[in-house]
Design brief:
Distance between the termini: 13 Å
Order of helices and strands: EEHEHEHEEHEHHEH
CATH superfamily: Spore Coat Polysaccharide Biosynthesis Protein SpsA, Chain A
Structural class: alpha/beta
Number of strands: 8
CATH architecture: Alpha-Beta Complex
Number of helices: 7
CATH class: Alpha Beta
């Protein structure tokens, strides 16, 4: 089940028990972004009185991302790093983040600085009623062709799996961690978000949506629009559809 709600600007968590949440950041060659994003995440989590951990997933970066992540981890015991020895792909990075998460809720956003993690706390109260908050980008700040590709991809995925999601690949999502004890993921590339949502719907989990602001990159280079990545995602999409159709809904 998927429901849509309009954006809100704040949340009052006063008087409630501490939120138990893992926040992870998939990173590939984000040496100019990772330290700031982690610092921002920690500041936000302190404000919501959370029992938290921050996990940096370094997907085989060839720059100094891994080294910087280790230095951040050494300074703060609430921060952990998962290293991939080589670049395994976005889906593999997300899978590693979900497997490493140990708290009741798990949130992820990319380590590229295109989202403001200050927009995460208003999502937390929704978890009393839903299992997943799948956000969509307001005024997406990407090149035109990337926006068109994203729109077409979302429409295709929703058509194939009977979902009504506004932005499949928006990297600003909040889950109950128990979901990942009950689904098996196979995607290691760009299909990962579609697979998680499709399998969650299949299992009867409840999804709501919320708009979040999107910002232009100030450092680093986008990799998701690579033609090889796109073609691989389409091939995996058809395979996933076949797998899920053969399973019991």
């Amino acid at each position: 089940m998927v429901k849509d709600k309009s954006p809100e600007t704040g949340v009052d968590l006063g008087g409630e028990a501490a939120v138990s949440i893992s926040v992870f950041l998939p990173c590939y060659n984000e040496q100019d972004n990772v330290a700031h994003i982690v610092e921002q995440a920690v500041a936000v989590l302190k404000k919501v009185t959370a029992d938290f951990e921050v996990i940096i997933v370094d997907d085989g970066s060839s720059d100094a991302t891994g080294q910087i992540a280790d230095e951040i981890c050494d300074r703060d015991g609430r921060i952990r790093v998962v290293h991939h020895p080589t670049n395994l792909g976005y889906g593999a990075a997300l899978q590693s983040g979900f497997k490493a998460a140990s708290k009741e809720l798990v949130f992820y956003t990319d380590g590229d600085g295109q989202f403001d993690i200050n927009e995460m706390p208003p999502l937390l109260p929704l978890m009393a009623e839903y299992d997943v908050v799948s956000c969509y980008r307001l005024n997406r700040r990407d090149p035109f062709i990337r926006r068109i590709n994203g729109w077409c991809w979302t429409k295709l995925v929703c058509l194939l799996f009977g979902m009504k999601i506004r932005d499949i690949d928006c990297a600003f999502k909040l889950y109950k961690r128990e979901i990942f004890d009950n689904i098996t993921l196979s995607s290691t590339g760009a299909l990962i978000d579609a697979e998680i949502l499709a399998r969650a719907v299949q299992k009867g989990y409840h999804i709501t949506q919320r708009g979040v602001h999107h910002y232009a990159r100030t450092a680093g280079t986008q990799t998701g629009a690579n033609l090889r990545v796109i073609l691989r995602a389409f091939k995996e999409l058809l395979k996933l559809r076949s797998q899920i159709r053969s399973e019991k809904w």
